[in-house]
Amino acid sequence: MRVLSHLFANNRAWAAEMIRREPDFFARLSGVQAPPYLWIGCSDSRVPANQIVGLLPGEMFVHRNVANVVVHTDLNCLSAIQFAVEVLRVEHIIVCGHYGCGGVLSALRDEKLGLIDNWLRHVQDVKSKHRIQLAGLASEAQRHDCLCELNVIEQVVNVTQTTVVRHAWARGQALAVHGWIYKLTDGLLRDLGMCVTAEAELARCYESALADAAAEPAAARIPEAPSVENGVRTQKGPGMA
Ligand SMILES: [Zn+2]
Q1: With CB atoms counted within 10 Å of each terminal CB, which end of the chain scores lower, N or C?
Q2: pTM for the complete prediction?
């Protein structure tokens, strides 16, 4: 009980299975880390980054926090972005939110939970910025879905405004910043139409994504069939059985 032995047993079984599939898997992986993606997602236990996009260890650099927020003074997130962009030289940064996000709901309801209220204040800023659009929705469930989407769109903007990303684009480094959302009830990702590859694209992408979010919530859409575009596998990857 005190050493959580079932988790160690799971670990041994997992490591043995990986070796059975590829005998030098760990030896190969220990040599170098060269993932093409940085994932910025929610800490929610139901949204495990690698698993939902079918990627193996070594294929995605991951940063997660409550409600997938990118704050300009958060050294933790900024350090992850800087290391991913300048050292690992990832080609894609994916901000992925999810419907049913408890952090977003707390922000929507203005709940008082303690210290975390300060963190979720950033989501409340998104709520305040888009209060007219949110007020026009009939139910709390719709406002919750919409705020989850708007939060992703605004966090993509925040990523593109970091000095790290601005400097990368200025020196000609290929780097795309994406905004996606995951639906807990069907296990599928939706693309929110935010794919920014240069500073000059930001305003147009932002306006377009906001218009899409206002016209038809992505939650109601059935995502397109799996495809490979710009090197990002949107739904199926090599690690998927
Ligand atoms: Zn969440």
Answers
A1: C
A2: 0.91
